[in-house]
Specification:
Elements: H1 2-6, H2 31-42, H3 56-77, H4 79-89, H5 94-122, H6 124-144, H7 148-176, H8 182-207, H9 213-219, H10 222-234, H11 240-248, H12 261-269, H13 277-301, H14 306-323, H15 328-332, H16 338-353, H17 356-369, H18 375-403, H19 405-429, H20 432-450, H21 452-461, H22 467-496, H23 498-505
Helix pairs in contact: 3-7, 3-8, 3-10, 4-8, 4-9, 4-17, 5-6, 5-7, 5-22, 6-7, 6-9, 6-10, 7-8, 7-21, 7-22, 8-9, 8-18, 8-21, 11-13, 11-14, 13-14, 16-21, 16-22, 17-18, 17-20, 18-19, 18-20, 19-20, 19-23, 21-22, 22-23
Length: about 500
């Protein structure tokens, strides 16, 4: 209102009015260019000159956590090539093909729902480690499967790991990342997903002519699963935000707010001197959670950033006090949290209703439907689709903290609609190479916004106590809609034609 009425510019923080010095002739001096530069930097259009360096440990934690994203991408992408070989070896019908592909998504629905409560109770680190175990067991089962039902069991178990990874890893990375780099680091998880899909397509190409090559395609995923499990156990710390939430839920967690980190620690140690033994135990437990959180933050923000760490701790604690430390379904359904829940659900549902995973799960099959009859040729051309997905996810990583979530999402959605219209047209006109080009356009625009933005936004919009459960619910919606699209694609295309299917997704 002040800007509208007085035309008063704001400072770089976007909140405080500033006065532009005037020259004698009534014009402004050099303060105006500086003001514009500061405002552009604030909006992410220029690099911030005072961005603090990020300790390498943050990247180590992000890398090990994002291996789950790689496995998510690999296990959802590898089936696109493996299914062509499985179709011949197991004599699969259309509905059995849809079942093999979609049963992992059914597991992902359950995994995403279970991951939220598990992460709230036992921590993000343990939950990601359990997901690694599911990836390992499921991959081994698929590799040795003597018949269809063992293969389906392995796919379902891998799906549990996929659902847990999709839910918790973006939350974990968002909680450990410095706020200046949070969007980019969360999007690294999506980059790992698309990289996993690309690697899976290359592995498919390498084993397409090998007898029972599908066993190698599906079993290789156990290796990164083992690496992630080792890394999470030996090298990765718990989320400091989760530790602070646990501390705040203890009965006797009270401490004065101080600007200095050491004063906070000293005051925190004297919190429960005059309480009874039971409350003293609770206070010691809360102090233990808080001291661990401070130690981890010092490692993640640097030992000489005490003021930044103290400010970050106060911000987290104030947020928890304002929103209530208690989570669960009651906290998620509170009036002030419901808008975030509705937004998160809508983003995840519309992401899948664009039909993206028909392109990722069925791209060799779609290319064969478009006229590329040879399995090896279809798989090799599908590599182009997966490579485009990975390349343009890198573009998203570079732009997400500069251009903003909303602009990228709307631009991406416009291109996705264009790609789907062209893809439907290619089948209507029966032009195979137009189908390939349309798939590339479709996936490129999807990867720059519709792919990473829903996950990034969901990792940011929920209060700390409801973050894991909120992401679990929205991830469940993602996998449920994914399941519907993936399990019905071939049957749906037979009913409305392939062109009609893609036009309806548009």
């Amino acid at each position: 209102e002040q800007m509208q009425s007085e035309k008063t510019p704001l400072s770089a923080d976007g909140l405080t009015p500033v006065t532009i010095p005037q020259t004698e002739e009534g014009g402004s001096d050099t303060a105006l260019p500086e003001l514009v530069s500061r405002r552009r930097r604030c909006c992410g259009l220029l690099p911030a000159a005072d961005k603090p360096p990020t300790p390498k440990y943050v990247y180590v934690v992000t890398a090990f956590a994002a291996v789950g994203g790689f496995l998510f991408g690999y296990d959802t992408g590898v089936i696109s090539g493996a299914i062509l070989l499985l179709e011949d070896d197991f004599s699969l019908s259309d509905w059995q093909i849809e079942l093999v592909i979609s049963i992992a998504l059914a597991g992902a629905v359950i995994g995403s729902l279970g991951a939220g409560p598990m992460a709230d109770r036992w921590g993000r680190r343990i939950t990601i480690s359990v997901g690694s175990v599911f990836f390992i067991i499921g991959s081994v089962l698929m590799a040795v499967a003597p018949e269809l039902y063992t293969l389906l069991a392995g796919r379902f178990i891998v799906g549990l790991g996929i659902g847990m990874a999709a839910n918790i890893i973006p939350v974990f990375i968002a909680e450990v990342a410095p706020k200046e780099y949070r969007g980019a680091l969360v999007t690294v998880d999506n980059l790992c997903i698309t990289t996993g899909q690309l690697i899976s397509y290359l592995v498919n190409s390498a084993f397409v002519d090998v007898p029972e090559g599908w066993r190698y395609m599906l079993g290789i995923a156990a290796i990164p699963g083992i690496l992630q499990l080792i890394g999470m156990i030996l090298f990765v710390s718990e989320s400091p935000r989760w530790l602070l939430v646990k501390a705040m839920t203890q009965n006797e967690y009270h401490h004065p707010r101080n600007n200095d980190l050491h004063e906070n620690n000293q005051d925190n140690g004297n919190t429960n001197n005059n309480t009874n033994n039971n409350n003293e135990t609770n206070g010691n437990t809360s102090n233990n959670y808080r001291s661990k959180a401070l130690a981890i933050l010092q490692r993640m923000r640097g030992p000489h950033n005490e003021e930044q760490i103290a400010a970050e701790v106060r911000e987290i604690e104030d947020t928890i006090r304002e929103e209530g430390a208690g989570g669960g379904w009651r906290g998620l359904l509170k009036a002030d949290v419901r808008p975030a829940l509705i937004l998160g659900i809508a983003l995840q549902a519309f992401q899948q209703f664009t039909g993206i995973n028909t392109a990722m799960y069925y791209s060799p099959t779609i290319l064969k439907m478009a006229g590329f009859k040879d399995d090896a040729q279809a798989i090799w051309f599908a590599n182009l689709v997966a490579g485009t997905n990975a390349l343009f996810t890198i573009v998203a990583v570079l732009l997400i903290d500069r251009a903003g979530r909303r602009i990228m999402l709307l631009s991406s959605l416009s291109g996705v609609i264009l790609g789907l219209v062209l893809l439907g047209l290619s089948f209507y006109l029966d032009i195979g190479y137009l189908a390939l080009c349309s798939l590339v356009v479709y996936v490129a625009f999807f990867a720059t916004g519709m792919g990473p933005i829903p996950w990034t936004v969901n990792a940011e919009i929920f209060p700390p106590a409801s973050r894991a459960l909120g992401n679990g619910v929205t991830a469940c919606v993602n996998w449920s809609t994914n399941l519907v699209i993936s399990m019905t694609f071939l049957s749906y295309a037979h009913v409305v034609t392939t062109a009609g299917a893609f036009w309806s997704y548009a």
